[in-house]
Design a protein that fits this description.
By secondary structure, the chain is of the alpha+beta class. It has helices at about 1-5, 10-30, 40-55, 135-145, 150-165, 170-175, 180-195, 215-255, 260-275, and strands at about 60, 65-70, 80-85, 85-90, 95-100, 105-110, 110, 120-130, 200-210, 285, 295. Strand 2 and strand 3 form a beta hairpin.
């Protein structure tokens, strides 16, 4: 019930109902034809709705995995420290409320615009997994004087140069083909900044990147498409070469075995492969009894029991 009273739309309704109940009370008291005791009912409702409205104005709900900092409007100073999840009291109409995350797996994905090797400008979206429950948000407020958006923007601005240093040695293809190497280099470069701020970064990932120049993006996509076609052509050429080499090896083996028939040659090669298995059948014999190879297995003895 108390949680509902902290909702903004509930406070508006209670304010309206309080006014309505107060008007009814005044009408009953001013009507000479109605007994004054009837004013007790709307009077009670008036008191209740006024109390509900004031309770909502002097209390706030801190959601799970969140923490709240209440700041005095006139002085700009925090009031009462960080508030934990639940209902917390706040000053009436004289405070600002800043809500910060407090979950252990907090995802923060800022956008950076560094230059990679040869001075090529890129736009990179890097996602950080941070343990927000260990961050001293009061210290962050005192340092940057703002809510979550203000604080994280300040982080982003402070890290721009460090990200630029980390990726300056890599080429564009490295951002695609060696993302794990690039992200490890970025994390190594940024750790000395995060540690003094009490920010624990569990992992990072390069979510996306592109050139800052649209013309370069188009040229890069065309180059990638051309490279894909080249890779497919090379794979097809390699497969054809393997087929030619396999056919030559097969012909040489058949020639050495004195076989001229293609079918007999294939059967012979299959039998040779079967004979070379790690668990080949016992007493397997491969011979060239004429123009075609033959395979012989040990005889299987069958006992027939006469029927009485």
């Amino acid at each position: 019930m108390l949680t509902i009273l902290t909702l903004g739309w509930v406070q508006v309704i209670t304010a309206i109902l309080a006014v309505i109940a107060l008007v009814i009370t005044i009408i009953v008291l001013s009507n000479v034809d109605v007994h004054k005791l009837w004013a007790i009912v709307p009077g009670v409702f008036t008191i209740f709705f006024i109390w509900a409205f004031l309770f909502g104005q002097t209390h706030a709900l801190v959601a799970p995995n969140k923490t709240m900092l209440v700041v005095n409007r006139s002085t700009g100073l925090p009031v009462g420290g960080l508030r934990q999840p639940g209902i917390t009291s706040i000053p009436l109409w004289t405070s600002l409320r800043y809500v910060y995350p407090s979950q252990s797996e907090y995802q923060w994905c800022p956008v950076f615009t560094p230059s990679i090797k040869n001075g090529v400008g890129v736009t990179m979206t890097i996602c950080f997994t941070i343990d927000a429950s260990q961050i001293d948000w009061l210290e962050q407020f005192q340092r940057y004087n703002g809510n979550e958006a203000v604080v994280t923007t300040a982080w982003q601005n402070a890290l721009q140069d460090q990200v630029a240093i980390a990726v300056s040695i890599y080429e564009s293809r490295d951002l695609t083909n060696q993302r794990n190497v690039v992200t490890d280099a970025i994390l190594t470069q940024l750790k000395p900044w995060f540690v003094p701020h009490g920010i624990t970064v569990k992992q990072i990932g390069l979510k996306d990147w592109s050139f800052t120049s649209e013309a370069m993006n188009i040229a890069y996509e065309q180059a990638q498409l051309a490279q894909t076609k080249i890779d497919v052509a090379n794979a097809e050429l390699q497969a054809a070469q393997i087929q030619v080499q396999t056919a030559k090896i097969r012909r040489d083996a058949c020639t050495a075995a004195g076989l001229t028939s293609e079918a007999a040659c294939l059967q012979y090669l299959q039998l040779q492969w079967l004979a070379g298995l790690p668990q080949a059948p016992a007493n397997l014999v491969v011979s060239l009894g004429g123009s075609a190879p033959a395979i012989a297995f040990p005889a299987v003895q069958t006992t027939v029991t006469p029927t009485p």
